């Protein structure tokens, strides 16, 4: 495209009085303005006029080289390449950069020691929260360098602002919220208590939806599975209170010592643990260890009472436990023996009542019971597979019938599934994390459009993307656990060796 003079950009009636180029295309000086009867005005361009020595004739070829005009390209810049795990390989000099246009909120939090397990604490700020900045409370257990340096930490994350997006956001539904898109750092506050030994898993006492937090005089219990083989129960209510009310002091003797310690497992450590609630003063805690045993402890007004007889149908390490959301005496478990078992605490002999003997091709690491459609159970295996089971088809213990087939199965992850959880209010959506550094969001209600069948844009040699896969979150190293925030819809929190991520995507 040829370069035009300034005068060609204006109509004739607006060209009068406009300055010309200092040097024309043939290098001659411009004409001096003709003075009128009022006298000469100071030349506004006098300081910019080159001396005679500086003016060169382009035809002589002397003086400084004249660079050619830069031609503008009408081609749009190349779009950024989307990284798909298993399809693309990062070179040594390449790093992943998040695309903030697909996040409503995204924050990262570094910690002193890795927290391989955490739980989301309920708060009094209300349910179904949509406005920003947001606030969230977490409780986590550390994996420090030495046993004595470990802690149970309560975090308060506030000023969680919306993500600063690129481009024009004029179509946003929240244009009236002046503070929605501020690019500010979140505020992180925490309180901690010492914990002997690394924390394999931590779970907070369940609280009913829309119910207020316990009063300051009432306990808010958290259980920790220690690598020492002990299960400790703590009261973190004073820590939460001190975060909410500046200047609040608490009795360290109430906090720094466990409310109760379960010694049923001896020195055998474990990972499986889940709470259930039968009322404000009646709690039940299940714990499973690597020697295939599951113990139950219940609470009474006077304290906790661990039952001495274990549940013993698994033949290898118990990896995860989940209470039934609809039947108070029923729970599910999964194991390194590749099975998923269903139990009823009322059954004699402490044996499972039903199960899937070969749920996965390898160890079954995690399970999640759907709280809305209560006959659906998720499982994640060591081979990276995710399966959805209809518990109405699970065979009773001792039956010779073959194992049922899963109602859905996904093989996207290429490393062990480390965590899996149903969405708290959407019965078809779940989140999963894997040792392949991915957090994935899924929706079972999505089906492939018949018009799109056969239209595959996957790169050659790449992995087909299932239509149910809504989102892939990356950037963390060795993701260990993922949870939905029960009071901020669509918000996901994940923990890994390099810290926490809290985010909300445009997909959920």
TrEMBL record:
A GO cellular component annotation in the UniProt record: nucleolus
A single GO BP: ribosome biogenesis
SUPFAM superfamilies to which the protein is assigned, alphabetical: WD40 repeat-like (SSF50978)
Disordered as annotated region, ranges: 1-62, 162-199
TM segment ranges: none
Domain (Histone-binding protein RBBP4-like N-terminal): residue spans on this chain: 93-161
Comp. bias regions, Acidic residues: 37-62, 168-186
Ranges occupied by WD repeats: 311-353, 357-399, 410-452
Comp. bias regions, Basic and acidic residues: 11-33
Keywords attached to this entry: Repeat, WD repeat
One of the Pfam families matching this protein, by short name: WD40
InterPro entries: Glutamate-rich_WD_repeat (IPR051972), Histone-bd_RBBP4-like_N (IPR022052), WD40/YVTN_repeat-like_dom_sf (IPR015943), WD40_PAC1 (IPR020472), WD40_repeat_dom_sf (IPR036322), WD40_rpt (IPR001680)
UniProt protein name: Glutamate-rich WD repeat-containing protein 1
Biological source species: Laccaria bicolor (strain S238N-H82 / ATCC MYA-4686)
């Amino acid at each position: 495209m040829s370069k035009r003079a300034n005068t060609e950009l204006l109509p004739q009636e607006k060209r009068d009085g406009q300055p010309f180029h200092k040097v024309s295309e043939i290098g001659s000086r411009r004409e001096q303005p003709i003075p009128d009867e009022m006298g000469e005005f100071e030349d506004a361009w006098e300081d910019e006029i080159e001396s005679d020595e500086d003016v060169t004739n382009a035809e002589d070829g002397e003086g400084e080289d004249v660079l050619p005009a830069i031609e503008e390209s009408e081609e749009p810049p190349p779009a950024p390449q989307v990284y798909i795990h298993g399809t693309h390989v990062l070179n040594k000099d390449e790093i992943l950069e998040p695309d903030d246009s697909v996040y409503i909120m995204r924050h990262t939090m570094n910690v002193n020691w890795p927290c391989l397990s955490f739980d989301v604490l309920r708060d009094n700020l209300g349910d179904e929260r949509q406005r920003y900045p947001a606030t969230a409370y977490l409780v986590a257990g550390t994996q420090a360098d030495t046993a004595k340096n470990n802690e149970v930490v309560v975090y308060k994350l506030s000023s969680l602002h919306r993500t600063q997006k690129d481009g024009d956001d004029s179509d946003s539904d929240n244009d009236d919220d002046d503070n929605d898109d501020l690019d500010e750092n979140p505020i992180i506050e925490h309180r901690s208590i010492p914990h002997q030994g690394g924390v394999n898993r931590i779970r907070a006492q369940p609280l009913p939806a829309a119910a207020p937090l316990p009063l300051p005089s009432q306990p808010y219990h958290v259980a920790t599975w220690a690598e020492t083989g002990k299960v400790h129960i703590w009261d973190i209510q004073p820590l939460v209170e001190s975060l909410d009310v500046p200047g609040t002091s608490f009795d360290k003797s109430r906090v720094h010592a466990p409310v109760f310690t379960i010694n049923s497992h001896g020195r055998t450590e474990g990972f499986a643990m889940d709470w259930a609630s039968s009322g404000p003063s009646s709690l039940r805690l299940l714990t499973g260890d690597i020697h295939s045993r599951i113990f139950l402890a219940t609470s009474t007004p006077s304290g906790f009472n661990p039952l001495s007889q274990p549940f013993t149908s698994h033949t290898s390490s118990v990896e995860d436990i989940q209470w039934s959301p609809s039947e108070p005496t029923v729970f599910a478990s999964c194991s390194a023996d590749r099975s998923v078992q269903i139990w009823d605490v009322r059954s004699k002999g402490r044996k499972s009542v039903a199960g899937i003997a070969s749920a996965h091709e390898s160890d079954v690491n995690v399970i999640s019971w759907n709280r809305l459609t209560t006959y659906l159970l998720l499982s994640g295996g060591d081979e990276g597979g995710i399966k959805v089971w209809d518990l109405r088809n699970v065979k009773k213990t001792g039956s010779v019938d073959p194992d049922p087939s899963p109602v859905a199965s996904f093989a996207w992850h290429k490393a062990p599934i480390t965590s899996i959880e149903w969405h708290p209010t959407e019965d078809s959506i779940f989140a999963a994390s894997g040792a392949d550094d991915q957090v994935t969001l899924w929706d079972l209600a999505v089906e492939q459009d018949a018009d799109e069948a056969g239209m595959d844009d996957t790169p050659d040699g790449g992995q087909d993307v299932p239509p149910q896969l809504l989102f892939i979150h990356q950037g963390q190293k060795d993701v260990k656990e993922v949870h939905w925030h029960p009071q901020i819809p669509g918000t996901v929190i994940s923990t890994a060796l390099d810290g926490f991520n809290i985010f909300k995507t445009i997909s959920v």
